[in-house]
Design a protein that fits this description.
heterodimer, A: alpha+beta, Beta-lactamase, 5-stranded antiparallel beta sheet, B: 4 helices
Chain lengths: ~575, ~170
């Protein structure tokens, strides 16, 4: 056949035309359909809103939110934290075999009574709690039982990993995580704020120092059968409290009785008559006001009769004593005579400036008012000069002593870590200076005594340890200064000869004071080792000495060679001193 | 020509539509993965919190001290072991540090004989929950050295005398 045969003509060509048109229609429809699909695809991709499960909108949070924030020590050691501690509950109606389930539960939680659990599981209630606050390991085991009738209900528990350590500073929370005392209560606004849940509260405490103070105090308390003890370590340059212990203490994790004696923080809650420790303030105000010079002599040959009372010396020298000797040998007669020179009004002004008339300033709740004489006559002024008739809390004494040695600036005590900025001045990132007096600027601290008086007092305190009653606080390599205090306790309205409060407030190193260490024992009983004496020099001074021996190297305080103390020549040392 | 151009554009539109679609699917998958990871991070953070609490519990100073007393031959550092200045370790009042400019090795140049002063805190009452580090007595070492040299001298004298006696 030739090619011409393929050519279609005439009527046949019309049929092909029809066929072509018929193909065009579905093609057009297909294009239309696919076009619509493409347009829809583009519109979905570009313009359509995301569905309800819009992933961009709530990007998943990776922050844990807890009911209460953590409390850390100055080095970041956890002191209090909230952990998830689910409660075990049951739906008894869903439990097929109560006896078997009870066996399994008791195997995981051995402290539960099997009979009781069995009765609970057999009961007709819809829902009941079996145990609160499971540990993570227990939660895992309960889940592994695979029992549908058991439910783990989400709950949180406040944990104090350090146990007894610093329990008085931290305070505690009740079953519903409401703060009841201590830092927990004072900083509740911060700790209970969910938005600041991941901002831990850094305390100024140092767990290691706290441990050492607590251990030494506990050792001494057991050794001298004392009722209680208290101790503070404070940084004199910033007012930070490195350790604050009150014994007996409690464990915040256990069940607590708010009225029990161990719940009381002796450092802030109870004013004590401090005895000779107050002589430090008497001498400081006498020197600062210019009423008395260091070389002035005062007649301490015989007990001093004022009105109907007689003032005795505990270690009578029976001669004329100068000011360093009065301080070093802790002469009551001498300090009474000195305060007579200073005057009652002056004494009151100075004591007020040292903060002895107000509550102690610190971030804790339940602070005690000091007990002051009802009227300030000459005799009251004299007893106050050697620490009787006035009762202040240990914290006030420590704050005052640190003002005496640090150059005369009264820096309020604080429990919050201060960060040092480039100039070395302390400041806090977290808190406004208006809220907390301790965070005011460096130059705004009140100058209570002159730097020159402060320098003299440092030497006097050094002498009291070198030659005076505080000799047991000496530590090789460190220049320790301090003042002992012994006061008889008031029992049934009269001073008891037997029951005493012995204390020692030490400062080290004396040439550049860094830390004030305070130790106090309540009603100690002398032992053979102390020759049955219960004075601050024999009971409390060795405790402070041991604390300094242990924390000195820890805090990086460099030991120095012995340097002669000033005013040494003013002291006539007798045998046995 | 127009057909080619139109075809090209249709193709481009289809490709870009497919790209947008697949991009969106990928994003969805990534978002799902992100959610998964966030849940995991949260779980890990919870675990870290528990572990930190447990670490604080296990490293209670009281417990560490007991364990250290039992298993380690270490004692707390003593102030005698800290050196504030070269003089205090040399036992001499005057010590000069010399070093040549080329090297960085300072040498101690003694100016006098060492005198180790006796510490005057020995008669102190000791009251401590934790025992102090034993203080290394430097004087004893010095005395022992002196004793040794005496022995050596004596033997030398003896040797001479025996030699003389022998002749």
């Amino acid at each position: 056949m030739s090619a011409a045969d393929l050519h279609i003509e005439g009527a046949k060509s019309g049929a092909i035309e029809v066929a072509r048109n018929r193909v065009m229609v579905p093609t057009f429809l297909f294009v239309l359909g696919f076009g619509a699909l493409v347009i829809r695809l583009i519109s979905i991709g570009m313009f359509e809103d995301m569905s309800d499960k819009s992933y961009f909108a709530h990007s998943a949070s990776t922050e844990i939110v807890r009911e209460r924030g953590d409390i850390l020590d100055r080095n970041g050691v956890v002191m209090a934290t909230n952990l998830s501690a689910p409660s075990l509950a049951a739906r008894p109606r869903l439990i097929g075999n109560p006896a078997e389930t009870a066996d399994k539960i008791v195997a995981v939680l051995p402290e539960l009574n099997r009979t009781r659990v069995l009765n609970q599981l057999k009961s007709s209630k819809h829902f009941l709690y079996i145990k609160r606050n499971l540990s993570p390991a227990q939660v895992w085991k309960i889940n592994a039982l695979g029992e549908p009738g058991l439910i783990l209900e989400e709950a949180e528990k406040r944990i104090y990993p350090q146990g007894h350590l610093a329990s008085h500073v931290l305070g505690y929370v009740d079953v519903d995580n409401n703060p009841q005392a201590g830092v927990e209560k004072f900083f509740n606004d911060h700790l209970a704020n969910p938005e600041r849940s991941n901002e831990p509260l850094y305390l100024s405490l140092d767990t290691r120092v706290q441990h050492i103070v607590r251990q030494e105090l506990k050792f001494a308390m057991d050794k001298f059968s004392a009722l209680g003890a208290a101790g503070i370590v404070m940084d004199v340059r910033s007012g930070e409290i490195l350790a604050m212990t009150s014994l007996p203490d409690f464990d915040g994790n256990g069940s607590l009785d708010p009225g029990a004696p161990e719940m009381k923080n002796r450092n802030i809650l109870e004013p004590y008559e401090m005895g000779s420790g107050l002589k430090t303030f008497t001498i400081a105000m006498a020197l600062d006001s210019g009423a008395v010079k260091l070389s002035d002599g005062f007649d301490a040959t015989a007990p001093l009769k004022v009105g109907r009372r007689t003032i005795h010396d505990d270690h009578p020298k029976k001669r004329i004593l100068n000011v360093p000797e009065i301080f070093t040998f802790s002469s009551n007669i001498g300090s009474s005579l000195i305060i007579r020179e200073v005057g009652v009004e002056n004494q009151r002004n100075y004591l007020q400036r040292f903060g002895m008339f107000d509550k102690p300033a610190i971030e804790l709740t339940g602070l005690a008012q000091p007990i002051l004489p009802e009227r300030w006559g000459e005799i009251q002024s004299m007893t106050v000069s050697y620490g009787h008739g006035i009762a202040v809390t240990p914290l006030q004494l420590v704050t005052g002593i640190s003002a005496i040695v640090n150059g005369g600036r009264l820096i309020p005590a604080t429990l919050i870590r201060k960060s040092k900025d480039r100039d070395g001045a302390a400041r806090s990132d977290d808190y406004q200076s208006d809220d907390y007096p301790a965070f005011s600027r460096d130059d705004s601290y009140q100058q209570v005594i002159s730097p020159e008086t402060s320098r003299k007092m440092r030497h006097l305190m050094r002498l009291a340890v070198e030659y005076g009653s505080g000799g047991n606080a000496r530590v090789g390599g460190y220049r320790v200064g301090g003042k002992t205090g012994t006061a008889e306790k008031v029992k049934n309205g009269a001073y008891s000869r037997k029951d005493k409060i012995t204390s020692f407030v030490g400062v080290f190193p004396m040439d550049n004071p860094q830390y004030v260490i305070f130790a106090m024992l309540d009603e100690p009983r002398g032992t053979e080792e102390t020759f049955y004496r219960e004075t601050g020099g024999w009971i409390a001074a060795p405790v402070v000495g041991e604390i300094i021996r242990r924390i000195g190297p820890l805090l990086g305080v460099m030991p120095v060679d012995d340097v002669a103390t000033e005013y040494q020549n003013l002291i006539l040392v007798e045998n046995g001193e | 020509m127009i057909k080619v151009v139109a075809g090209f554009f249709v193709l481009m539109v289809m490709i870009s539509a497919a790209t947008v679609y697949s991009l969106k699917e990928t994003t969805k998958r990534l978002e799902a993965r992100k959610l998964e990871l966030a849940a995991k991070i949260l779980k890990d953070r919870n675990a870290i919190k528990v572990l930190r609490a447990e670490m604080a519990y296990l490293s209670q100073p009281d417990r560490l001290q007991k364990l250290s007393d039992r298993f380690l031959a270490l004692v707390p550092s003593h102030s005698d072991q800290m050196v504030a200045s070269v003089n205090s370790v040399a036992g001499r009042d005057e010590v000069r540090l010399v070093s040549l400019p080329v090297d960085a090795f300072p040498l101690l140049l003694p100016q006098e004989k060492p005198v180790f002063q006796k510490r005057r805190f020995d008669r102190k009452m000791h009251l401590a929950a934790a025992p102090a580090a034993p203080v290394v007595k430097a004087e004893k070492v010095v005395k022992a050295e002196k004793a040794e040299t005496k022995v050596k001298k004596a033997s030398f004298y003896e040797r001479i005398s025996t030699k003389l006696g022998g002749e």
